[in-house]
Amino acid sequence: MTAPPPTRAPATASARLPLTPAPSRSWWSRRQRGWAPYVFISPFYVLYGLFLLVPILIGLYLSCTEWAGLGTPRWVGLRNYRDLSGDHSFWTAVANTGLYIVFTLCVVLPASLLIAQALNARGLRGRDLFRLTYFMPVVISPIVITLVFGLFFDTEFGLLNAVGQALFGFGGIDWLGSPGWARVTVVVLVLWRWTGYLTIFFLAGLQNVPKELYEAAALDGAGPISRFRNVTLPSLRPVTAFVAVTVLVSTAQIFDEPFLLAQGGPGESTLSVAMFIFRAGFQRQQLGYAAAAGVLLFVAVFVLGRLAMRLLGVGRDDR
Amino acid sequence: MTTFETTGARAPVRARRSAGRVLLYAFLTALLLVFALPLLWALSSSFKDRSEIFAHPPELLPDPGTLDNYRGLLDGNPFWSWLLISTVVAVISTLASVVLCALAGFAFAKYRFRGKNLLFDIMFSSLAVPFAVIVVPLFIMVAKAHLTTPYFALVVPWVAPAFGIFMMRQFTEQSVPDALLDAARVDGCTEFGLFRRIVLPLLRPALGALGVWSFLNSYNSLLWPLVVVSEPGDYTLPLGIQALFGATGRQYDLVLAGAVLAAVPSLIVFFVLRKQLLEGLTAGAVKS
């Protein structure tokens, strides 16, 4: 580094020692350097306060009230929470959301790792074409995707049943009409929409693994499976941790797929917690009840996220 | 020469390897179809008439193709208004969030200041707050303040995403040398001048990445617009298409045309900035 020594001194030091030689810099410019970072980050914290902190506090307050949106909220203490704990729909929503989380962690995540591994093959042609096409579902508006899947999964006329009929002689699966199949359909949509997105994270991670590690392992006589287990997986730990936590937090608030595809139905078989909150708050005008469900979701995501970060060691080598 | 011997010894290995290659390409191509076919199917179906969309057996290509769906969509519905609102909202959010995130990312990457770690942790942990948690109170606040116009409600609360700041911090650390900043300071450059004249130009690829990310986020968002926008005249594209789908009794003809047109801007943005997006998204995750 060729920078002149005085400017290399940290700002705090030069502020404490006014005698530090800094001939070309005025008092004002030194001052400015102390203030500047706070000014630069302030827009975020203003918005953070207004649109995150305040809503959370209001949500906490509302969760202890009964309110339909008009007049003043009526204080009911912890009754909403008590009601939630006995609300069958809420537990259905929790169970469904749990199912979506388990599915993304145990199926979508490994699938994208596998695809990334395939895309990382040495000398692969058309890698960009594959990668971009796999990524495309996430670029396109969920409403568009849902329409497309409607075409596929329509019970009477959908492509899937038509093809099933033609090839295997069965058809007429009530994809979106029977509780079990509706869940399968939602989960298939999640798989289709997010696999390509997660793949690019793993691919970037794989491309960062030093080639020498593989060569050394190959010299030691390790086969492809053992190389994958002993070289690839450990090197991918940071990426995997990042992806797993992201997936956990975002799947815990899944809304688009079950809402658009099946409106949470049939019955409540695909209802997620985020949909439960939306339904209570904006369709049934139980704003306090919705807020209480929101607080519980917050606590759950926070605890799960912390747990996962601890378990996977996210941020351990950060900063 | 030993060529003869080596080829002889390696022949089975090579055969096995080329068999592996065939399998690999078959696997990747099958996946390509899985991801591309549904979209192509929708494209093709948007040129079919109402009865043909669910024809039995299904027709791969429309026969004869018709533009009636597009005509019906554009004539009878304020499609251009939906598109305009969605695009304007997305463009404003993108420009603002790119600047604000770069500014904050620069501060976190290149300054030492009191409380920095704490402030960073607060910022970073806001990523873990589920939107569903704040949706009810936030809606109440915005509605009470009579600010439900899309140009406020769909823009302002989302204009400084923590993910963007984190991403910009990573990039600034990687691509802005301290020496350059110090040299400019010696030349009398102000701190904001450093950002404008040195940091922004150096960050250009990263700005592209963040730009696509926030454009797509805004353009595709559903839950919040669904909650906050109630005037049909203020509908964004997803809301408009959803309303149309309901109004036509869940008929696919018009909405498919709408879906195809709606996908055009996001695909254009994606293809123009694809390299930046894919590399930018992963930069934070794989930094070693």
Q: How would you characterize this protein structure?
A:
The complex is a heterodimer of chains A (319) and B (288). In chain A, helix 6 crosses helix 9. Chain A has one domain (79-312): MetI-like fold (Orthogonal Bundle), CATH 1.10.3720. By secondary structure, chain A is an all-alpha fold. In chain A, a hairpin with a 7-residue loop joins strand 1 and strand 2. Chain A is globular. The model of chain A is unreliable at 1-24 (pLDDT under 50). Chain A is built from 15 helices and two strands. Chain B folds into two domains: 3-68, no CATH class; 78-286, MetI-like (MetI-like fold). Chain B has 15 helices and no strands. Chain B has helices at residues 3-45, 50-53, 68-76, 79-110, 116-125, 131-144, 150-153, 162-175, 178-186, 191-202, 204-220, 223-228, 237-247, 252-272, 274-286. Chain B is globular and about 75 Å long. Chain B starts with a helix and ends with a helix. Residues 1-8 of chain B have low confidence and may be disordered. The interface between A and B is large, with 107 and 99 residues.
In short:
The complex is a heterodimer of chains A (319) and B (288). With 319 residues, chain A is mostly helical.
Radius of gyration of chain A (Å): 26 Å
User: Which ranges of chain B are low-confidence, i.e. pLDDT below 50, for 5 or more consecutive residues?
Assistant: 1-8
- The domain count of chain A comes to 1
SSE pattern of chain A, N- to C-terminal:
HHHEEHHHHHHHHHHHH
CATH architecture of the largest domain in chain B: Orthogonal Bundle
Mean pLDDT value of chain B? 86
